[in-house]
Amino acid sequence: LWQASAWIARDAAGSVWAMIWKAMLYENGQGLPLSLEKSAELMQRGAMTQDAAGYGALARYHWGLALYHGRGVAADPTQGLRWLRQARDEGVPEAAAFLAALPQHTF
Hints:
- Helix content is 67%, strand content 0%.
- It has helices at 2-11, 16-28, 36-47, 55-69, 77-89, 93-101.
- It is mainly α.
- The N and C termini lie far apart (39 Å).
């Protein structure tokens, strides 16, 4: 796990996939110190990045959840829903499922 963490940490500078994995390691405290703030920061960077592989959309889903729930950032459900809708519209099934499970008046 440590070797994987080192590889991901090194590559997170430009790879959205690596940003997501590094964020998850921070969020779970596996191989890196637990830090919801660092996790959210990486998800935000990934969410703002377009990539050919489609990992940007997945990062937008995770960033939306962080904002909606206030995980590592101040809670902002309105902005969280905006990012979650964008991820849904870009084909992220987890975003669609999350939004579908919300009471209708929330969005």
